[in-house]
Amino acid sequence: MSRQLFGTDGIRGVAGKAPLDPRTVHATGAALGAWCRSHAPAGETPEVVVGMDTRESGSWIAEQVAGGLAREGVRARFAGVITTPGVAYLTKNDTFVAGVMISASHNPFQDNGIKIAGHSGYKLPDSEELEIEKVIFRLLTEGIEATRRVMEVEARLDARYLEYLLSTFPGRLDGMKIVLDCGNGAASRLGPEALERLGAHLVVTNAEPNGRNINLECGATHVDKLRARVVAERAAAGFAFDGDADRCIAVSASGAIVDGDAVLLMMARYLHARGRLHAKDGSPVVVATVMSNLGFQRALERDGIGLIRTAVGDKYVLEEMVKRGAPIGGEQSGHLIFMEQATTGDGLLTALRVLEVMQQTGKPLDELTEGFHSYPQKLVNLRVKERRPLADLVAVNAAIEAAEQSLGSDGRVLVRFSGTEPLLRVMVEGPTNESVENHCALIAGAIRSELGAS
Questions:
Q1: In 3-state terms, what secondary structure has residue 131?
Q2: Is-catalytic flag, 105?
Q3: pTM value?
Q4: Chain centre distance of CA 90
Q5: Backbone angles phi, psi at 306, to 5 degrees
Q6: Per-residue pLDDT tens for 67-99?
Q7: Domains of the chain, with CATH numbers?
Q8: Pairwise CA distance, residues 325 & 340, whole Å
Q9: What are the helix (H) ranges across 40-125?
Q10: DSSP SS3 for 136
Q11: Residue 212 and residue 233 in contact, taking contact as beta carbons nearer than 8 Å
Q12: Choosing from 57, 59, 105, 333, which is the catalytic residue?
């Protein structure tokens, strides 16, 4: 049986509508509460830490989750506005049985979501999310009523996470000029405070959230303004975060975008040179997803570093990292995981690691990412009304096969359903923009013909 509510990054949807209507959210809290009671030490009252990003719907969703937890005798402690990795850190390093983050990551303010981490700090496995789903549906069938529970923000919780971040940095950034785009999200206070305390000269943008401007033409998915600002300010680097700050996209002094692939390459080279990149079997490896650019793979190969690819989703990257003992991994989109220091993608931690390499080597970002030439890549998102198995789409498969034969070893084709939205994604990578555009158009046309996608 497959999951119906949980996607690759928790439960996500339009706030106020199923599955993020008050009753379902309350039932989710109650189902999680039952899970917590079964996983808590005997005789102890289970506690769950709850955090949220800056969306206007975050407070009532958090209160409904807390109400559901209370129904099962589980106490919710509220960290207020905090990053997703901040919740994961607190969950792991305190007595919390679980952590809940209310966020829809890079999505617009109308959307929201519920992400759940276990005491390990890792997102719950698919099998356990499925068990929680079964309880949610049972409670809804039984007619559970939505009841909020108001919580007071415990300021020391996010302060503990901030202190941890600062403890991972080996020096100071005195005088280094850095531009931050906080996406009007969870990093709006924590990001500037962290770098200011390290002595950086900051130019801060998009750090005035109003509940509706999160990710609005800013942050990790809209970096053009950040690029221009970095160049205009003659800054050493710029960093953009998404709504819950588990992503980070960097910008070099020249205005070049340094995405997740480029940061991973830079970090892999840095760690490999110091003998710190080895997996359990002794080989130097990086874990990334099927979306990572072919140019990234080729650059790693030239440096004698292996690339392990997984399905899209940082939880799948993490599972493979744990399995292989790989120290770093992540996604092109900027979800980067540093196993020695975190259990999930962390945008603020990523920025600190990039700045550490710049500081320790004395090299600018442009030099640190030399030799990385991205292959032209085209990504098309098609909105679909149904999810028919791709294997059943004859014309689509014919278009994919034709593209793969034409591109050969100089390109890749990836067609997949989104794990968080009703989208079918088409990605084509190849040696020239023309070939990529042509094959992408042919595959998208076949999908529209067979599925009526828009």
A1: helix
A2: yes
A3: 0.91
A4: 18
A5: -85, 155
A6: 999 999 999 999 999 999 999 999 999 999 999
A7: 6-158 (3.40.120.10), 168-368 (3.40.120.10), 377-451 (3.30.310.50)
A8: 10
A9: 58-71, 84-93
A10: helix
A11: no
A12: 105
